[in-house]
Amino acid sequence: MSKTAHVAVIGLGYMGLPMAALLAQNGLKVTGVDIDADKVASLKTGAVPFDEPGLGEVLESAIKSGNLTFVTKVPKADFFIVAVPTPFVISTRTSDLSYVRSATKSIAPLLEKGNIVILESTVPPATCTNVMVPIFEEIAHLENTKDFHVVHCPERAFPGNTMKEIVFNDRMVGADNVEAGEKVVKLYESFVQGSIYLTNSATAEMVKLMENTYRDVNIALANEFAKIAEENDVNIWEAISLANKHPRVNVHLPGPGVGGHCIAIDPWFLTETSERASLIRAARHINDDMPMHVVRLTTSLMPKGSKRVTLLGVAYKPDVDDARETPATHIMELFRQRGFDARAHDFHVKHTDFELHELDEALADADALILVTHHALYKDLDPRRIAKLVRNRLLIDTRNHLDHKKWAEAGFTIKVLGNGRAS
Ligand code: SAJ
């Protein structure tokens, strides 16, 4: 890959920004583009817009190298990397491709022969050929796979560990023209240390959705097992760990629901194009029902006249500040609909759809505490001190995360999701 190649990265979010920084740090000339002028202005000052371990350092060195600049308008480039959000429309359970369309339209007038557009965003099957290519052909008057190429390289990094996974994970390059695919492989080889596999765009689109759907269906199975264990004298956490001793079994873990902008959404991108996806739909419904299960579990154990419930953790997963699609939102709403004063605390999340409280304020006079997110810091709580703040000593641990002996010694009744044994 010629180090003089110019790459425009469109969308400077959780994936676009790390990509832009890594490409620039490795010698490519990179322009980071975002429609949010405030974000661009703040990035120019070297500010890091979200928590991601290691991102600050890479960003700093990329900016210092002089290879990375930020703008609000797409420039001409050799490679255009599209890393924009693909929101989910709850009412229709379908994808909203408006950002993919508008990014495509902003590139199209600049498209020249030999250009390669790389789509990183997760999309429903056939988006490259049915959505992006027609826009380019119409506006740029160029021919797909001859004059220009649309290649799908879905991101696979794990939020919270993005900077390592983006470098060390294997990647897929989905290209409908082998030469273009090889050029993209070379571009990614500038920073990827995992293996890079070539396939076509349709396969890459489907594989990305299959990966996240596999995880969602597996979690749904764990959640169903948890409910069955609750009806029996079984602790699902012990049962899953024993089942997973089998060399060909890998059951995931139950919990209060599946959050984040990937696993809870991507399976719907498969169902939107296929009538056949019944198992995938069923899994989505099982996982979406978990907040209601948590509410039922809690209310069945709270004394009459209980008023306040406190959620510990609203992030969708541990030790991150990301609350997108978190099951905590649904748990809060369900309690509020039932007339409860539902409060929430989180060590990492700063802003979400509802107000967050400082720890002691959240705990004060609570009738039930519900551990929703297994942040490491919750393990350090002192249950004896908390016992003095709450009104009723009831702890619902939806992640089997806390030291239950310690909490029981402080006088708490403990109910662990998926544990049918008396606790
Ligand atoms: N969860 C469970 N039980 C489990 C594992 C997870 O209930 O056993 C829940 C988590 O609490 C969380 C949700 O699932 O609410 C999703 O979290 P996650 O940690 O499984 O995944 P994400 O959404 O942070 O990232 C996923 C990853 N995909 C896979 O592992 C197949 C990541 O590699 C992708 O890059 C990312 O989606 C994406 O952007 O698509």
Helix content: 25-40%
- What gyration radius follows from the Cα positions, in whole Å? 24 Å
* Number of helical elements: 16
Look at the structure and give the mean pLDDT.
96
Order of strands across the biggest sheet? 3-2-1-4-7-8
Strand content: 5-15%
Derived structural class: alpha/beta
Strands, total number: 15
**Euclidean distance between termini CA atoms:** 61 Å
Unreliable stretches covering 5 or more consecutive residues: none
Shape: elongated
Bound molecules: ligand SAJ
Largest sheet entry: 6 strands, parallel
Report on the architecture of this protein.
The longest helix is centred in the middle third of the chain and has 31 residues, at 201-231. With 423 residues, this protein is α/β, with parallel strands linked by helices. The chain contains 16 helices and 15 strands. Helix content is 40%, strand content 14%. Helix 4 packs parallel to helix 5 (127-140). The chain starts with 5 loop residues before the first strand and ends in a 7-residue tail after the last strand. Strands 3-2-1-4-7-8 form a six-stranded parallel β-sheet, sandwiched between helices. It has a five-stranded parallel β-sheet with strand order 12-11-13-14-15. It has a two-stranded antiparallel ribbon with strand order 5-6. The relative contact order is 0.09. The protein has helices at 16-25, 37-44, 55-65, 98-107, 127-140, 162-168, 178-189, 201-231, 236-243, 266-271, 278-288, 290-301, 327-337, 359-363, 383-389, 404-409, and strands at 6-10, 29-33, 68-71, 79-82, 88-89, 94-95, 116-119, 149-152, 171-174, 196-199, 308-312, 341-345, 368-371, 394-397, 413-416. The protein is elongated. The structure holds ligand SAJ. Residues 122, 155-159, 211-212, 215, 219, 252-253, 255, 258-260, 262-263, 316-317 line the site of ligand SAJ.
